[in-house]
Amino acid sequence: MDTAVQLAHPAAGGRALDDVDRRILGALERDARLSARAIARQIGMSPGAVSERIERLEARGVILGYHAHVDPDVLGYGVEAIVCVETEQGPALDQMLDRIMELPAVERAHVVSGRWDVLIHVRVRDQPELRALIQAQISTIPGCRRTETMMSWEVRQRRSRVG
Predict the structure, then answer these.
(1) pTM (predicted TM-score)
(2) CATH numbers and ranges of domains, the chain
(3) Which residues of 101-120 are buried (b: 16+ CB within 10 A; e: fewer)?
(4) What is 53-97 written as a DSSP string?
(5) Which of 40, 83, 92, 141 has a CB 3.0–4.6 Å from the CB of 88, allowing a cystine?
(6) pLDDT 10s digits, 54-69
(7) Residue 156 CB neighbour total at 10 angstroms
């Protein structure tokens, strides 16, 4: 089980981050379970000063939260896909997004520009479950005109945007 810290925009709260903030955030991104004392040892500060910095970063909305990063493959959700959706425009789009986000297989949805209107990142157990998700759930949501699905073969993700 990996842990992660969820970050807002680096300049959240109206003030740019300094090097110390970036080093603290980098440590938390690597392991969100680190204590202020452990971070202080890594960056050469007192635990009290690190705690104050973390509290300010939380208050400013730079740190949005902490969570465990669980491997979906280990839980049996080995099929990852991106479902591209063409929608009707207007109020139907917001209602459609609300319905999409209620589906347990949906991890996130992006409203985008270009050929497609919405990109939906999903995780399911197998291809029959993916087919049922698209045909019986996503495609039947009012406002959905058509879909195209791309299977994800590999994901690479940058670990840190700070430091």
Answers:
(1) 0.75
(2) 2-69 (1.10.10.10), 79-151 (3.30.70.920)
(3) eeeebbeebeeeeeebbbbb
(4) HHHHHHHTTSEEEEEEE--TTTTT--EEEEEEEEE--SHHHHHHH
(5) 92
(6) 999 999 999 999 988 8
(7) 4
